[in-house]
Specification:
The complex is a heterodimer of chains A (about 575) and B (about 375). Chain A is built from 25 helices and no strands. Chain A is an all-alpha fold and about 575 residues long. The relative contact order of chain A is 0.12. In chain B, the strands form four sheets. In chain B, strands 7-8-9-3-10-11 form a six-stranded mixed sheet, with helices on both faces. Chain B has a five-stranded antiparallel sheet with strand order 2-1-4-5-6, covered by helices on one side. In chain B, strand 1 and strand 2 form a beta hairpin. Chains A and B meet through helix 10 and helix 11 of A and strand 7 and helix 4 of B.
């Protein structure tokens, strides 16, 4: 039993062992990265002065921010908009995502794999680019489609993207890959024998669907809808670019505007942030209850687990065409629009004869103003790679302590790291901004402050990737190493890290791509010298240089593809070396 | 009654085409328990799923209870829910969102019965598997063995024309498997429902079946009563797959048509055994199959047995018997000796195997 007592750390013979030290450091990092910023937001909401001003740190709290916020009609209209916008976009994304997941995973539709790949591949394009592309497509004044409609019928402004419907359309399509990802996992986890058993009792297709398939899928469906809703209430790009002109303010945009545009009002901003967090936390609690409920449904599965695909007959061409149409809408239309606009000179209407004005000027401008356009690309690349690496190191240590040791208090690591998921990006950005006004560390306006906020933002997601892998590694593997007398840190490096590699790589990719395309946090923390690619897009948007913006978007797209391909190639090479 | 004729099914993937079931024909008479037995990938489960209607045949016909349900030539395919069958799955396939009673009652919902009648019949079905006390439990809160009983009750409840079992015991532990095996057999005999049973476990097949169909690579190798399949196999594959067999290669010396016995010259001398096929001729290559338990130590030379002069090379105490490795000349064989036989390594022993216990087979 000596192995066990050593695992339990604090009671070991050596008063200071590496586990205790590493554990303590981890706890401190998490407290600083997660708990302190959250307290910062809560504290600010009860103060009448700004962070850093005299009196901010004394204990005189007031509810005046809340009183002011609740008295404003704008607060209540933002509340209503946030909820209806989230409901409508979640519903749209769910319907399209569920259809795609069903087509790809459960039917014999041709090109299913390609459809799945294109749907997921869409994730790498920054959301703000897609939003801008849709504006170029369907803006009432400059939209390409409106130009076509005008040329054909003479009707002006047939499509209006600056509307509630337009916002829902763009953001709903934006979330289709997420809905697809979640539901596809649920479809694959369902044992087809359960449906076959129903059919064998004499139940037809409809009774099987109604009594077996739908009830079994209910927890997963509920969880998916909740996660889509939670994602939407904190979404930023679409409300920021379109909500202003559409007259649809939501919490996220209000927080941004009140922290960065005059009249600046951090007190009110922090009350919106608190409201947003309360809603998020409530919904997340519900989400986890549904997940637990879903796990209860898991039963014994046989070795011969083979999902049965529905034979659609001639209908499979219809589902194929519909799926391709959805993929075209989510990815094709915005990307082609961007590509097209990037070759047009400034101030030429988008509907002009494409070959008359065709030019590379937008690209040459970008490269000649390299400080303006290319440095941010480098910044984003550094942020993506740096954040992904730091986050994966932290979460693998967390997963190890939580699942493979018995150190008291290890559960707190899990809770702390996961708590960040309840914090909307815009709140997180504000929290870090306010925190570093107080803390005398001069990182405001550098890449470090953005990186630190990203670390907090992506901890929960990365933790999920690594936890799944960690749970699958049997403790006996480490125990076998301990018996050989190797020290603990060596076991972690030599046993766990190599076995965790698939989960680590997947998580690293995920964080890298998301940190690269992130806009909300960056926009809250950006200054002159730490601009990222996404903030440059926003800048170009504000200046109205749509053609240059499009060229920049194409550049980002190409760069991200190259980055993903390169990392993939590197990990593949390591994979081969591992097998030798 | 189930009649299957010339059934064929091919699975095509991008890389290859797998002929899962090839030209399979068999019959299960009313009230019989017929087992499809074979190693994994032999096509037994596919055959069962074709009968169930969960897969579509490429060719052939299936009739259940005298009514054709599949006839590829006539383009007839009756969907599974119209075939009036009960099926028990390897993974139990108990619906986790229902109680035990709801699981069983579900099978009666399409029958246009009153609510009380459904409940009564479902409870009766649960009683046949001794689970009436668990009716209101959530189904996932049962042990594996209990879940499989619920699955059996559900399959029985609708009083189907036939029951299909797809490796129902392979997820249970060894002791429970033995108990459930006996229970399924008694239940099937008592109700008298025609049953098709798929397993890869030869002991299970021997214990439970009226007829065994041995399958390999999508084809039926041979069919027979359990005892005949074990004692008088007609194929080397059957002898090797079912039970343990010493197989000794040789050539036919002569055949006595009157007794059905063949004399075979082998590397351990001339052996006499039964030609179960009756197709061999003098000069043909042949395999002699001898079960390890059919070897008995003798003094002297009895008239109706082969005598093998063996040397014990190793012994393993296996509880009920002793598993001995022996050599006859240079040929290694296995001998299952009774526990009271003093067999020691290095000792010489004369072993007899009756002419009727040795089986002469055509080589594969």
């Amino acid at each position: 039993m000596s192995v066990v007592s050593e695992t339990s750390g604090f009671r070991g013979r050596r008063p200071l062992n590496w586990r205790a030290i590493a554990f303590a450091i981890l706890v401190l990092i998490l407290l600083y990265q997660v708990a302190v910023p959250l307290l910062m937001v809560a504290w600010t909401s009860f103060k009448t002065m700004r962070p850093g001003e005299p009196g901010f740190l004394d204990l005189a709290l007031s509810l005046s921010n809340y009183v002011r916020a609740f008295a404003e009609p704008r607060f209540w209209s933002a509340t209503q908009n946030t909820i209806s916008f989230s409901l409508a976009s979640s519903a749209l994304a769910f319907v399209l995502g569920a259809f795609l997941a069903w087509v790809v995973d459960r039917t014999d539709t041709p090109l299913a794999r390609l459809i799945g790949l294109l749907t997921l591949g869409r994730i790498i394009i920054p959301g703000i680019l897609i939003t801008v592309s849709w504006i170029l497509v369907a803006s009432p004044t400059i939209g390409l489609f409106n130009g076509i409609v005008f040329a054909v019928t003479g009707v002006k402004g047939f499509f209006n993207i600056y509307s509630f419907g337009g916002m829902v359309w763009v953001h709903g399509l934006e979330m289709v890959p997420l809905a697809y990802l979640l539901l596809s996992a649920a479809f694959q986890a369902m044992d087809p024998r359960l449906e076959e058993a129903s059919v064998m009792t004499g139940a037809g297709i409809w009774r099987t669907l109604r009594r077996v398939t739908f009830p079994l899928a209910a927890p997963a469906v509920g969880a998916t809808l909740l996660l889509l809703f939670i994602t939407t209430i904190e979404t930023f790009e679409v409300p920021l670019l379109m909500g202003g002109r559409a007259g649809v303010p939501v919490y996220a945009t209000e927080i941004y505007l009140k922290t960065s545009r005059t009249p600046i009002d951090w007190g009110i901003a922090s009350t919106y942030a608190m409201a947003l967090m309360v809603v998020s936390i409530g919904l997340l609690a519900l989400y986890f209850r549904l997940l637990r409920h879903g796990e209860r449904y898991q039963t014994v599965t046989g070795k011969d687990f083979r999902p049965r695909r529905v034979e659609l007959g001639p209908w499979k061409y219809v589902t194929c065409a519909l799926s391709l149409a959805i993929v075209l809408l989510t990815t094709g239309v915005p990307f082609l629009m961007m590509l097209y606009a990037s070759f047009l000179p400034d101030f030429v209407p988008l509907t002009a004869d494409p070959f008359e004005y065709f030019t590379f000027a937008n690209y040459t401008t970008l490269f000649s103003e390299s400080e303006y356009a290319l440095d941010p690309l480098l910044n984003s690349t550094l942020l993506g790679i740096g954040t992904a690496t730091v986050v994966m190191l932290i979460v693998s240590a967390i997963a190890y302590f939580v699942h493979k040791t018995r150190i008291p208090g290890r559960k707190a690591l899990d809770v702390l790291a996961f708590a960040a998921i309840a914090v909307p990006s815009v709140v997180l950005g504000a929290a870090f901004l306010w925190l570093y006004l107080l803390v005398p560390v001069p990182i405001l306006g550098t890449l470090f402050i953005i990186g630190l906020a990203y670390v907090t933002k992506y901890l929960p997601f990365a933790l999920r990737f690594v936890t799944t892998s960690m749970v699958q590694i049997h403790s006996e593997l480490e125990e076998a190493a301990q018996v050989t007398g190797a020290p603990g840190w060596k076991n972690f490096l030599r046993i766990y890290l190599p076995l965790l590699k698939p989960g680590l790589m997947a998580g690293w990719f995920w964080v890298m791509v998301h940190a690269y395309r992130e806009l909300t946090i960056a926009l809250m923390l950006v200054r002159a010298h730490n601009r990222t690619a996404a903030t440059v897009i926003f800048d170009l948007w504000e200046n109205g240089s749509f053609q240059e913006l499009s060229a920049f978007g194409v550049l980002i797209f190409g760069l991200l593809i190259a980055l993903v391909a390169a990392s993939h190639a590197i990990s593949r090479r390591y994979g081969i070396r591992e097998q030798v | 009654m189930i009649v299957v004729e010339r059934l064929t099914k091919t699975f095509a993937s991008k890389a290859e085409r797998v002929a899962a079931v090839q030209d399979v024909s068999f019959e299960a008479k009313a009230g019989e328990m017929v087992t499809l037995l074979g190693p994994s990938g032999c096509g037994k489960t596919t055959t069962l799923r074709l009968v169930a209607g969960l897969e579509r045949a490429d060719a052939g016909t299936i009739a259940i209870g005298g009514r054709a349900v599949v006839d590829r030539a006539a383009d007839l395919f009756e969907p599974p829910h119209q075939r009036d069958l009960g099926m028990v799955f390897q993974s139990y396939a108990i619906w986790p969102h229902m109680t035990v009673l709801e699981n069983v009652a579900y099978a009666l919902e399409g029958k246009r019965l009153g609510r009380d009648e459904v409940r009564k019949r479902a409870l009766a079905a649960l009683a046949t598997v001794q689970l009436e006390g668990f009716a209101d439990r959530p189904a996932p809160r049962l042990s594996g063995g209990q879940q499989q009983r619920v699955a059996i009750a559900r399959a029985l409840a609708g009083e189907p024309k036939a029951l299909l079992f797809d490796e129902p015991l392979s997820n249970l532990d060894a002791k429970l498997r033995g108990e459930m095996r006996g229970e399924i057999k008694r239940l099937q005999r008592r109700i008298g429902v025609t049953s098709l049973y798929v397993t890869h476990d030869q002991a299970e097949a021997l214990a439970i079946s009226d007829w065994i169909l041995v399958m390999r690579d999508g084809r039926i190798v041979e069919r027979g009563r359990p005892e005949d399949i074990y004692r008088r196999p007609r194929a080397v594959f059957t002898a090797r797959f079912i039970g343990d067999a010493n197989l000794i290669a040789g050539r036919i010396h002569e055949i006595d048509r009157a007794t059905g016995r063949a004399a075979v010259d082998t590397e351990i001398g001339r052996l006499i055994g039964v030609d179960t096929n009756g197709t061999l001729r003098p000069g043909d290559p042949a395999m002699v199959s001898i079960r390890p338990e059919d070897l008995t130590p003798v003094a002297g030379a009895p008239g109706d047995a082969n005598i093998l002069k063996a040397v014990v090379t190793d012994t393993v105490f296996a509880g009920a018997a002793i598993e001995a490795e022996i050599e006859v000349g240079k040929t290694p064989l296995r001998w299952l000796a009774r526990r009271d036989v003093a067999a020691k390594s290095g000792e010489a022993v004369d072993l007899a195997v009756g002419f009727d216990a040795a089986v002469v087979l055509p080589p594969e």
